[in-house]
């Protein structure tokens, strides 16, 4: 960290998400983007010109060695998350990595271990961990406003083939579910491909399923459902139904208790402070009773964009030595929950203990002769 207390940031991956990170950082005190890296020189140059960063690289190792950095932001496709994260951690540089954190659990283990050995902070950019609605809902649960929590239901945006959504958005949903359920202990799941039970022949690369989506490794299926058991006796469920239309207002979690319910819609009304609703009874009743849901005021949460909150909390964690929100360990659990869907389906929907014993990707193992 510089003498002025400013964190010097290097960014790996100058595409759309990378540019969002740069834009956010340039609007924050206490951070300065001083290095950019992208495998395409044109992308690094374009971002450098647009945001006034002169140090540009196509090799992240060269950037890490040439530029004095306190924090590296990894904003590449998932296939390239592990290598720059591990390389930065081994140089004692803190890391904020985009989700999903890795292609498989073996890679995630290596990333977590590299950060542990070097004593650096590793966070996964599952920013809804600090979403104002999530934080307020956690406070209401702690106050007993909905009684004992029984079940946490994850909700997706859709707009992707389900195989892609499991890995690309599923870890976001899993992270929000863990904010209320705790550590997952088992999963039982079923994956369908075009209306039939998915088979080994349905396993494919993410870019084969959706050529314009992110390169996130092995996927399968057009629909999937999963049930979870968390360590506090709380149940969980998530559905990936392959809806073609994206619906951002659907995205979030429902928390069902013995005396009421909470509904967080992570992508709706964050800035306005209106993305949490409370139902003061345990069961919803008829559709005509939907008006009984009450919007919850979030003003006491310090409402701001969750990406900004992630960076503020990351800075605090670096200074204090505490774990950041959505730490590497929490990000690995979120990935574990999603890959557990495939492992359970591979074993005919059996209930599978978490963490998974085999750290290889379940679909990669399944497709092998």
Describe the 3D structure.
By secondary structure, the chain is α/β, with parallel strands linked by helices. The protein folds into 2 domains: 7-127, Rossmann fold (3-Layer(aba) Sandwich); 129-305 and 334-364, Dihydrodipicolinate Reductase, domain 2 (2-Layer Sandwich), CATH 3.30.360. 34% of the residues lie in helices and 22% in strands. The protein is built from 12 helices and 18 strands. It has helices spanning 16-26, 41-51, 60-66, 82-90, 105-118, 132-142, 162-168, 170-181, 206-209, 306-320, 328-346, 362-367, and strands at 7-12, 31-37, 56-57, 71-74, 94-97, 122-124, 149-155, 184-193, 196-197, 204-205, 218-219, 223-230, 235-240, 252-257, 261-265, 276-279, 294-295, 352-353. The strands form 3 sheets. Strands 7, 8, 9, 12, 13, 14, 15, 16, 17 and 18 form a 10-stranded mixed beta sheet that branches. β4, α4 and β5 (94-97) form a beta-alpha-beta unit. α4 (82-90) runs parallel beside α5 and α8 (170-181) crosses α11. The chain is globular and about 60 Å long. The model has no long low-confidence stretch (mean pLDDT 94).
